[in-house]
Amino acid sequence: MAQYIERPTLLHLCNTLQLEGLSTKKPRITKYTMKPTSSSATSVPSSLSLYRLNGSSGATCILIQTDALLSIQYRDKYNEDKEADTFLPDQMDISGECWEDESRITMSWKGFTVNIYFSKTPGGERWYVNSVDLAYSSSNKLFEHIDRPGLDVKLSTPPGTLLFPTPVGKSYTCDNEVTITMFAQDENDKSGHLAKLYLRELRMQSFMYKAGNAWGPTFQCSATGTYRDETAPIAVGSTLAVATVCTVVGYGLWRYFKVKKFQYGTMA
Questions:
Q1: Is residue 30 part of a domain?
Q2: Which residues contact 185 (CB under 8 A, 6 or more apart)?
Q3: Which spans are transmembrane here (predicted)?
Q4: Half-sphere exposure of 150 (CA within 13 A, CB side)
Q5: d(CA 116, CA 244)
Q6: What is the DSSP string of 110-121?
Q7: For residues 109 and 92, is the Cβ–Cβ distance under 8 A?
Q8: What backbone torsions phi and psi does residue 118 show, to the nearest 5 degrees?
Q9: For 109, left (φ over 0), alpha (ψ -120 to 50), or beta?
């Protein structure tokens, strides 16, 4: 008796190819995946990176700990909008300046450079980030089939930026993901790019002047990410006080002239 051998049909072959394609496809790294973990000599969790800038005395001036992702929106030569992502690596070229009321940290990797500028509020009670900018070439290999290669691109936060206001001596801490948006401030910009810097599990401190990685006490970010200006209650209180005085004085003048008019009317 002849043995029956089942021959693969076209449907079987298609299903096999489809399953093989699905099994070998690599997941796309997005803003919602953690960067690859690596061992570290510090006590920082393996998913986080620690960036430090020392002053001329050797003491730490700026300390940043985070899991950061840079995402850049651009257009390719097929006139399609694209998005390119790159993690900020553990090891970067770090430089900067540390002054009494101003400081800057510059972080460079794979053709990208991020500058973060810090300032103190008048009176020196709080520190904050007043600007973040990004520089790179549109010919960077990260961009596939970009429409305009060879451009020197510079993106930054808008003027008047006030991020992470924190009492001096304390470290800003936020478990929520923080997003910093940067775009071209030059009206002659030809790139049309927009960048977003995503900072997760952020801890940051400037104007430290401490040896080693010694953080100051934590200053937790609010749920809404807003900052309550402590001068507002003073201004409101002063306004109410002035309004009260004006009301009392006005009422006194009204009473004075009203009574005086009544007296003159009675005498007549």
A1: no
A2: 156, 158, 159
A3: 234-254
A4: 1
A5: 46
A6: TTEEEEEEEEE-
A7: yes
A8: -115, 150
A9: beta
d(CA 199, CA 181): 11
Residue 88: name the closest of 53, 62, 50 by CA.
50
| H or E stretch covering 31 | none
Distance between CA atoms of residues 184 and 151, nearest Å: 13
pLDDT tens track for 58-112: 889 999 999 999 999 999 999 999 999 999 999 999 999 999 999 999 999 999 9
In a domain, 236, yes or no: no
For 24-50, the pLDDT digits (tens) are 333 333 444 444 444 333 456 668 999
Within a domain: 194: yes
pTM: 0.69
Cβ–Cβ < 8 Å for 85, 104: no
How many domains does the chain fold into?
1
Q: Band the pLDDT of 210: cuts 50, 70, 90.
A: low
User: How many helices, marked H, and strands, marked E, lie in the chain?
Assistant: 2, 13
Residue range of the domain that includes 170: 49-230
Q: What is the CATH number of the domain that holds 129?
A: 2.40.160.110
185: enclosing H helix or E strand: none
Q: Is residue 213 part of a domain?
A: yes
